[in-house]
Design goal:
Length: 232
């Protein structure tokens, strides 16, 4: 009688094949990395591991915007970077805001088997992180949360630049006694036409012209300022 040959299972007795040993070693390395992840240090420039649903993904921090301590900006990259020059499902998310409390640790290649790529999947549409473009909104708040929005500046690509300009504009506003406040917030892509580019504009001169225009007569109708809350 002809006996059929079956592929050896990983839990079968005997010596492991070289192929099985590679799989076992990779799995053990993953378990060790999950049990004791390497701590991530803000400002180190190292790639990080973050959870996206039940998966673990590799994220690359924006240079200069990875100091935290609460939020940094990252982009999700393919786990085999730089050996994968282009992977559409991993390059379409842009820069994202990442809360440092969600960082599992420094990226470890042992996590690869836990990524979407290892499962043959693209990243999901919703990765639970908002876009990391920032803005400064200048508004008067005569009615608490209801504000009269005067000026929108953005987008900024780095959080620290946004906060620096907000502080600078607040100093000018306090000196001028206009009663307005500058707040660092998120850039609203759908309102992009209403923004002034901070990298191509003298924002101090722009602010002065805006306040002067307001004080010489023409007033905007008070609106609910949906986007002028401070950055978290």
């Amino acid at each position: 009688m002809k006996r059929r040959l079956f592929r050896r299972c990983g839990h079968a007795p005997g010596t492991l094949t070289a192929e099985d040993q590679v799989v076992v070693d990779a799995f053990r390395a993953m378990l060790a990395a999950r049990k004791k992840p390497q701590p991530w240090t803000p400002g180190s420039g190292q790639d990080i591991a973050i959870g996206i649903g039940p998966f673990i993904e590799r994220a690359h921090p924006i240079p200069g915007d990875d100091h935290g301590p609460d939020v940094i900006a990252v982009t999700l990259v393919h786990p085999d970077t730089p050996y994968v020059p282009y992977a559409d499902g991993y390059t379409s998310k842009g820069w994202l805001r990442c809360e440092t409390s969600t960082i599992l640790g420094t990226w470890n290649p042992a996590y690869r088997m836990l990524t979407h790529a290892a499962a043959g999947l693209d990243l999901p549409d919703d990765v639970a992180m908002p876009q990391a473009h920032y803005a400064v909104h200048i508004a008067r708040y005569p009615h608490g949360e209801f504000g009269q929005l005067l000026l929108q500046i953005g987008p900024y690509t780095q959080c620290r630049h946004t906060e620096r300009d907000a502080d600078r504009l607040n100093a000018l506003l306090q000196k001028g006694g206009s009663g307005a406040v500058a707040k660092a917030t998120l850039f609203v892509v759908s309102d992009h036409a209403a923004y002034h580019d901070p990298y191509e504009t003298d924002i101090a001169a722009l602010l002065a012209a805006t306040i002067d225009h307001e004080e010489t007569g023409e007033r905007h109708s008070p609106i609910r300022d949906r986007h002028s809350g401070g950055m978290t």
